[in-house]
Amino acid sequence: MINGHGDDLYKYDDIRTNFSSNVYSHVDHSGLFSHLTKAMENIVSYPEPQPYSLEKSIAGEYGIDDDMVCATNGATEAIYLLAQAYRESNSAVLVPTFSEYADACVLNSHRLYKFYTLENIPDETTMVWICNPNNPTGEAYDRERIEMLAERYPGRLFIIDQSYEAFTTKKLFRPSDSLRYNNIVILHSLTKHFAVPGLRIGYITAHHTIIKRIRAFVKPWSVNSLAISAGIYLIEHKSDYELNLNALLEERKRVSAELEKLGVLEPWTSDTHYMLVRLRFGNAKALKDYLACNHGILIRDASNFDGLDNSYFRIAIQTPEENDKLINAIKEWIYS
Prior knowledge:
By secondary structure, the chain is α/β, with parallel strands linked by helices. The chain contains eleven helices and 13 strands. The strands form three sheets. A seven-stranded mixed sheet has the order 2-8-7-6-5-3-4, with helices on both faces.
């Protein structure tokens, strides 16, 4: 899906607060900016054809072998690589969720099934796609639940997208667990974790036999020099980016409660810093346009997620002051 993603900031002239992307914007990138300024000289040479140094850095962070890591141009490239590597499979996607799983499967001639709970995975499937924590609902399954599925269905390949793993207190699947499972693939996103969506840095961790199969479809130089350098820097300076996650999740609960008090909104329960909200009247596009044009606030119209209609929108929590501006602006829209 080229169009239809949440962060369409480029369409508007004066957005001052962005709730539409599931990225927490208030991080200090001064160290990264300084590092990339010094790394600019690298752009006059080709990057590593395979981002070996970044993969080595990631492997070292998790205490796993280098051949269990495949760095990619964002988590989205990882999705398409997997669909291509297992072309013409029978794939099941847990919905509502990120559209690229289904799009990648259709592009690679998969037979596609949809399911709505982990208890109802279609019998015909050989690949299962689960976003965990899920986008847009924010629901997260703990590691034991994923392991149970892998053990119950050893003949199926489980693709677990953990792009938002830094934003939940749930205990998720760890890369080192892949040593014990040859049917679990984990997708990761430095983009989300470190709030650098413009750099496009993701990676896959899995059993080395799966990574070997994926590598056969990786294009040379898919990760550029600045992204490689930035990825290594971010991993080495991970402690500089530590969030007060508990405070962020408490703020999400507060915002949810305040929106519910308005009487016409139904916030969904979430295990992350973002949440899905349903309007009891009106539609999300009208609200989005009003907020953007009148308050410089951008939210995510979630109506194009499979299984959702035009009454749904999604927001990612920012600072308390920005969140209060959003609440008051929505209140103004309701009573205008």
